[in-house]
Amino acid sequence: MIIDFERLKEISDIHGDSFYLLDSKKFEQNYKELQKAFRDIYSNTYIAYSYKTNYIPKLCKIVNENGGFAEVVSDMEYQIALKIGVESQNIYYNGPYKNPSAVEKLLLDGGIVNVDSHYELEIIKIIASKYPENLLSVGLRCNFDINDGVKSRFGFDVESEDFVDVINLINDINNIELTGLHCHFASRYIETWTGRPERMLNLISKYFNEPPKFISVGGGLFGKMAPSLKEQFDFDIPSYEDYAEVVATQFRDFFEDMEFSKQPKLIIEPGSALVGDAMKFAAKVINIKDIRGKKMATLAGSIYNINPTLNKKNPPVKAYHNVENEDKLRMYEDIDLGGYTCIESDYLYRGYTGEMSVGDYMVFENVGSYSVVLKPPFILPNFAVVDYNEETNSIEIIKHRETFDDVFRTYEF
Ligand SMILES: *Cc1c(COP(=O)(O)O)cnc(C)c1O
């Protein structure tokens, strides 16, 4: 069963004029499909889900239940992983700013810390000397040029003296083991992907006698999109299989002659690629006006709910008409759908064409990545998230809408 106006109205009556619709089934399907695409070529592939992209605990649990890992970049996210019962050896702690006590706890519990800079290594050296009986597992974030026109600020420049020094330093300490190498670049274009496994595998040849336990090539993969979104890009959007072809094939060829137990885990760290199309946002149409010939609607949602990175793309959108208001239904051409904030540029969609009336719900698709996690508490607290199951037409509350207290608890009055 596909959602209709009546169902949206029912959800809205409980949870407010705007709310997110999660599709956790879709997320799980994406997870399995992406994993299969890679495993069909290189069977020792694992998904470490990027928590920061959308850390809804239910999603993190789905990953854990399917044998996936947690890719965290803060102690806050590390705590989510612990809270939902992820085993420490399945937690990869990345990012440029790490909490020393979280680093210590994770390392002592057998998790992996991917070192981003020298200052982290100093922290880890102290932990190592404090606990000489524990073997600590670290990886190194590698930085090289992937021809995307960006000079990344993360990790160690693999062509520098620094890199060699860091490897030597780690090898000199008995109870720190360099168990893997890691890289991540934000660019999603397929052309920028060829070099990632290539450079990583070169580093393995150069610096490791035996292959390490893991090689992580990071995230930065496109997810699935509706045609209306795809056509706003001036290049083809790669599929899961396209990425697997480029990445997993190089791993397969490189480790072909090695017995399976020695082949390293290939880790990918998708966020957007799994969750982008697994969430929608429903916003009620509050009013429609005409300003000097320009039609504009005000919605009970904002661009900051669906696209806080303001990437200028129009999301796929569907209107669900208010059945009680059918006589007011009008055809609009090139109407802009504005948000509830007082920012002039707050438009969820520019140039919409279709029928609309006040009280309708506009449902925006492909809003799963960098939305709930990045929405500022500007003008309104954040909205509810409900998991909507299309097969059973049932809903499950995932996050309650925020209240005044949620936003102001930390302020002194
Ligand atoms: C953000 C991030 C990811 C996921 O990126 P997407 O944009 O969701 O593809 C993966 N790994 C690291 C280290 C990250 O910082």
UniProtKB/TrEMBL annotation:
Q: Name its co-factor(s).
A: pyridoxal 5'-phosphate
Q: Which InterPro entries match?
A: Ala_racemase/Decarboxylase_C, De-COase2_N, Orn/DAP/Arg_de-COase, PLP-binding_barrel
- Taking every annotated instance into account, which residue ranges of this chain make up the domain Orn/DAP/Arg decarboxylase 2 N-terminal? 28-275
Q: What UniProt keywords are attached to this protein's entry?
A: Pyridoxal phosphate
Question: Which named protein is this?
Answer: Orn/DAP/Arg decarboxylase 2 N-terminal domain-containing protein
